[in-house]
Amino acid sequence: MAEKLHVQLEELQEEILSMADLAREMLSGSVEAMIAQDAEAAEEIIVRLGEIREMNDRLEERCYQMIALYQPMATDMRKIACGLKVIASSDRIGRYGKDIAKMVEDISDKPHLAHMLSIPHMAGLVLEMVDDAVNAYRTGDLSYIEDFSRRDDAVDALRYSIFREAITYMMEDPKNISRCTDYIMMSRYLERCGDHAGKIAENVHYMVTGEHIEIQ
Amino acid sequence: MSDNTSLLTISGLNLWYGETHALKNISMEIQDKKVTALIGPSGCGKSTLIRCFNRMNDLVNGCRIDGTVRFHETEIYADGADPAELRRKIGMVFQKPNPFPKSIYENIAYGPRIHGINDRAKLDGIVETSLKKAALWDEVKDRLHHSAMGLSGGQQQRLCIARTIAVEPEVILMDEPCSALDPIATAKIESLIEELKKQYCVIIVTHNMQQAARVSDYTGFMYMGDLAEFGETVQIFENPKNELTENYITGRFG
Fold this sequence. Notes:
The structure holds two protein chains of two kinds. By secondary structure, chain A is mostly helical. Helix content of chain A is 82%, strand content 0%. Chain A contains seven helices and no strands. Chain A has helices at 2-36, 39-46, 49-70, 74-107, 119-139, 148-172, 177-209. Chain B is built from ten helices and ten strands. Chain B has helices at 46-53, 83-89, 104-114, 120-133, 137-140, 153-166, 183-196, 209-215, 233-238, 243-249, and strands spanning 6-17, 20-31, 35-39, 63-71, 74-75, 90-93, 171-175, 201-205, 218-223, 226-232. The interface between A and B is medium-sized, with 16 and 13 residues.
């Protein structure tokens, strides 16, 4: 029976990793669509929402079933606990991708302002955090996440600087308001995705060591 | 865990059955008014260990013990220590319910009588209190003089617990107390253990890890005569430090 649980735990992790990959694609795809102002590419992301929602419900249910059937303990229990958090964070990251994709159409009738402020740079940092958190989950190697607090600070600082910069553009010319509001929203979504990467990292740390840490 | 509530202090305890080294250098402290569970694969020494606490192994041929078991400040294996008195203070409940083939009342009154209590009113009081503490009173109060053998397995086991309580022990040892019971009877014993620990020190040997996790405050994992890991139950089941413990509780062996 334990053997069966361990096989199922491996399958569960594989499927959660596919979900995390999908979330990552939705986020990176939406950033690219935004930069390129490509409404068609954005539409392709928006339609994937159903897919990630289905994975979220199915995998979460699977975790609960495994708890009910096997009463897992120690690392087995921690793998499921961590899995649930990775599922929840991946769902959120995918949805932020969809939210960003939805802004593309709004913004595509006028060229970008000031190369989108620091948004492409910020998006790069956030996507790296998502990749490293997921890699840590895939491999159990905590070196991927060891400087996450510092990286999270850098992302927060960028969000603030984008906000300040956007305000100056809006004051300069009210015609900038609509684009700048979208930039502020987008930087906010990206920052939240960085936080979710941090959540995944915290839970991978717990899964591997049994100790809780806080990334802030 | 070394504080002034530890009731039993075991140090450097070794036990041999003939040539077999069954307990290897066990040291642990057992806290009063807490439940301590011992888990481990069959033959790991957990039953042997709790039988050391009330000298039940004295009766086994070829059994040799060294090291110390201190109960309060008294060494229980010291020359001149009285095993009968020790067993009154440290009672035991076995895997298979073993009521005497007598009435429910007599099962409980037997121990106190042996210890010299013959006053009827006093015995009545002990029977009632013991049955209440064992959560059996309401089920048997109208048939105290019926045979104990007519009770269900779970009721018989609670009767055995009541019988143990009747002589006012300080420690209750339980060796697989639920393994012969169905899930409902098991749940009753488990909630009873929860009650008992308010007043007694309870030590339970169990094969059922979920049971250990549910009822105990401290858990010891034994493996081939060693106490491989001993700590707070939550820590043992959430984040064991010893790889053997980890492998056992996640079902990778055993």
